[in-house]
Amino acid sequence: MAAGSARYVRYILVAFFILAVFYFVSNSTDVTTPLRTHLPGVNKPADGGGNNGGGSSEASEPKPPASNDVKAKINYDPAQFPMAMTPNDPGWNDLAGIRDGPRMNATFVTLARNSDVWEIAKSIRQVEDRFNRRYNYDWVFLNDKPFDDNFKRVTTSLVSGKTHYGLIPEEHWSFPEWIDQDKAAKVRQDMKEAKIIYGDSISYRHMCRFESGFFFRQELMLNYEYYWRVEPSVELYCDVHYDPFRVMAENNKKYSFTISLYEYYETIPTLWDSVKKFMKNHPEHIAADNSMGFLSDDGGETYNKCHFWSNFEIGNLNWLRSKAYTDFFNSLDRDGGFFYERWGDAPVHSIAAGLMLPKDEIHFFNDIAYYHVPFTHCPTGEKLRTELKCHCDPGENFDWAGYSCTSKYFEINNLEKPEGWDTEGKD
Ligand SMILES: Nc1nc2c(ncn2[C@@H]2O[C@H](COP(=O)(O)OP(=O)(O)OP(=O)(O)O)[C@@H](O)[C@H]2O)c(=O)[nH]1
Ligand SMILES: *[C@@H]1O[C@H](CO)[C@@H](O)[C@H](O)[C@H]1NC(C)=O
Ligand SMILES: [Mg+2]
């Protein structure tokens, strides 16, 4: 009995201590950074020019354009075209007909095979129903083989904007000459035996390398500044009331995500070594206020494997076409890990964004509910889900689960987790 009550006293003391620490930590972040549950500055007129791209106050030595020099061009006054961001804003429920107001220089983009036609048809239908029927953005389809008439007919019938079909040039979908074919073949055999998913696939590697370094340089993509990547068999579970491309442009966002998680280590054992080499050779490309804390738990010594899941992305193509990103991709490509390992485009894009963009140029689209097998992003908060007419099961939400990195993203950005994060969703 006495031992029992001593234990209770100890529990109470420990609990008090934890609460005190928590109070201290949450208060100190409150003071330094205003917590934001929604987009900062959406209603304030965006800077129309490209004048303050650099942002930081470094010495004015001429140097290659840094990633953040690529500033979105906005040639309208956002205040003239108010965009409802929350249910309290006028026009929120205006989901009928074609939206008036500006359109961004943007397109959807899909890499697919002819055999993916019915799976991409499903994805397109949801994107159109939930968003694009009111905006009519274009859609670019890319393939390493020519698209057949059936693929073109079905997809064109479903997309409300213009459709374009591109054939990927051979040099963007093949082994670079510096790759040792025997070494690459041996790796595929080993990975097959180790039962690593897609471990023995050549086409999967071409796909990952293409998405890492070439999709944004395809001739058709040069016509646009923003892209939204859509894969076959994905789902959009909630209405998208506002134009995410406008959110990107007006807030100078370069990269965005809905789901983040830890990468499968066997596919990227030397990726971080390659990244460190790049950082050493190109310190000029590393952003001062970067997201290293999202990628590494020891200040950059090792990679914690966190990445944004790139099968959903809304991003700025000019950033991917910048010298910073190109230098990054070329450096990694030379090291050969797309073939000697099985580097995915998700960690490649994520590490690039995390190191070369200022933190506040990466955006989490909580409002865009998304599924790609096997993970779901279903927005936290019942009120929000009702307002967005979501059809996802909140119990499936992956955001706050142990294998998600989204908590880490919230922490390094001093964001407050939405109410319900600890009661809804997956553990
Ligand atoms: N044209 C073409 N597209 C491909 C090829 N392999 C994959 N893709 C596309 O590249 C994207 C990613 O491929 P997925 O097979 O979905 O890879 P994943 O998302 O890692 O794995 P899943 O769980 O199978 O979806 C999808 O849009 C595919 O349609 C290919 O050999 N040729
Ligand atoms: C759209 O962006 C591309 C790439 O930056 C540019 O070349 C093109 O002129 C832009 N189009 C319009 C209509 O602004
Ligand atoms: Mg996929």
Automatic annotation (TrEMBL):
Residues of the signal peptide: none
Extract the Gene3D superfamilies matched here: Spore Coat Polysaccharide Biosynthesis Protein SpsA, Chain A
- Where exactly are the transmembrane stretches of this chain? 7-25
Q: Which GO terms describe its molecular function?
A: alpha-1,2-mannosyltransferase activity
Q: Where is this region: Disordered?
A: 40-71
Entry keyword set: Glycosyltransferase, Membrane, Transferase, Transmembrane, Transmembrane helix
Q: Which Pfam families match?
A: Glyco_transf_15
Annotated Gly residues bias: 47-56
Top-level taxon in the UniProt lineage: Eukaryota
* GO BP annotations listed: cell wall mannoprotein biosynthetic process; protein N-linked glycosylation; protein O-linked glycosylation
What GO CC annotations are associated with the protein? Answer: Golgi apparatus; membrane
| Sequence similarity | Belongs to the glycosyltransferase 15 family.
State what protein this is by name. Answer: Nucleotide-diphospho-sugar transferase
Q: What is the lineage of its organism?
A: Eukaryota, Fungi, Dikarya, Ascomycota, Pezizomycotina
